[in-house]
Amino acid sequence: MAGSRVKLELTRVVQGRSRLGVLKGLGRTGQHSLEVPGCLLHTHVGTVPHLTQDTLHTLSNLPSVTQVTLSNIAEHQEVLEEFKDGFRKFAVWGSGGRIELTVAKFMALQKAVQPDWYQSMADGETWQNNTSRKRVRKSVDRTLAHLDECLLVHQKSQELEGVEIFGVVEGGDILEERVRSARETAKRPVAGFCLDGLQTGSMDRALRTQLITALTKELPEDKPRGFSLPAFIVPHKCSTPGGDGESGSSSEFEKEDLKEAVVTERGCALCFGFDISPDPELAGRAPHAVLGLDEERDMAGETQQNGDLNLDDQTQMTSFEINLKDKSYQDDFRPLVEGCGCYCCKNHQRAYLHHLLVTNELLAGVLLMIHNTAHYQAFFGALREALAIDKLDLLKRRVLRERARQTQ
């Protein structure tokens, strides 16, 4: 296999863990790049939920990399092979259902899809707490074997010339297996790494910290690493938020399921503040904050759960969002977030969103998705800025202030 065109150029490393830089050489011709820490643009069968292409591109600072999950496209393999032009020109809704995949079928699908990069086939069904050591060891062995088979096919395939492959690090909650998986995967000619099984809510936070600390020591510094599923990583103690594109932290962190589409489907809006300007007015911009958040919760009579949330329950609201279906918003004529520059916040109020939601209007999903996508991407911009000017601790305090109030 020729040398990888994807290069991670670091401009700053904070505390030896948190990495700021640019992932370059993306795309078939290498003309695209992705700032890190960052996240991929989440899609369902190639389309951002609720948004048309025209509406999507009214948003600024969108990532140049789009995620298309295997479960979305596996049932369309025959059509893609017949179509021959790859997934970029082909996108339909799927009906779901379980599909059996061998390595041969998996690689045939990659040839049909023609992605810019993909993660190798892996056995990741070991995230449950009661998984035996024998099963976890088998998972690591099988994932490494799958990677070797995928690489063999990849190297001989003209259709995949210029496409990058990412190795998957497995190992469940067993440290030795995680380290073995990372060490062996790093020996293979992969462009980057996906840390699988760390995005679930069932794993103990301290254990997750220990695993990530050990993994980052085994993975090369000049290659990207990220989590296999889109998720929002909230900094905790001395960690750094990351995303699908890059996670540079090896310390303790706390993770919420704040994927834009999931929050939108709950009828909620992301509302956490992340502005770190010492004086927002002097900086020439309004404070990116939520007004009266505590009063809103009192009005709604809702109590957020303390401690770890069940991240596998996508209906469960987090403390970083507001539920606009609640009656407390029917007479609330403020924007979703004061200072937010998205179309929704500039032109509509919470009361209007509440009305759209309770009357089941399709426009509710469109407006919420516009705001949640803009807010999510703006957070990663603030994160990169905080790393660049050595204000990460200030950003952490700003983001977690609402959560701290909940747990006091």
Automatic annotation (TrEMBL):
Pfam families linked to this entry: TGT
Stored Gene3D superfamilies: Queuine tRNA-ribosyltransferase-like
Keyword ATP-binding tagged: no
Superkingdom classification of source: Eukaryota
InterPro entries: QTRTD1, Queuine_tRNA-ribosyltrfase, TGT-like_sf, tRNA_ribo_trans-like
An example Gene Ontology molecular-function term: metal ion binding
Membrane-topology descriptor: Peripheral membrane protein
GO terms under cellular component: mitochondrial outer membrane
Location relative to the cell: Cytoplasm; Mitochondrion outer membrane
Cofactor: Zn(2+)
Subunit structure: Heterodimer of a catalytic subunit QTRT1 and an accessory subunit QTRT2.
Role played: Non-catalytic subunit of the queuine tRNA-ribosyltransferase (TGT) that catalyzes the base-exchange of a guanine (G) residue with queuine (Q) at position 34 (anticodon wobble position) in tRNAs with GU(N) anticodons (tRNA-Asp, -Asn, -His and -Tyr), resulting in the hypermodified nucleoside queuosine (7-(((4,5-cis-dihydroxy-2-cyclopenten-1-yl)amino)methyl)-7-deazaguanosine).
Record's protein name: Queuine tRNA-ribosyltransferase accessory subunit 2
Native source species: Etheostoma spectabile
Lineage, top ranks: Eukaryota, Metazoa, Chordata, Craniata, Vertebrata
Name of the gene encoding the protein in the UniProt record: QTRT2
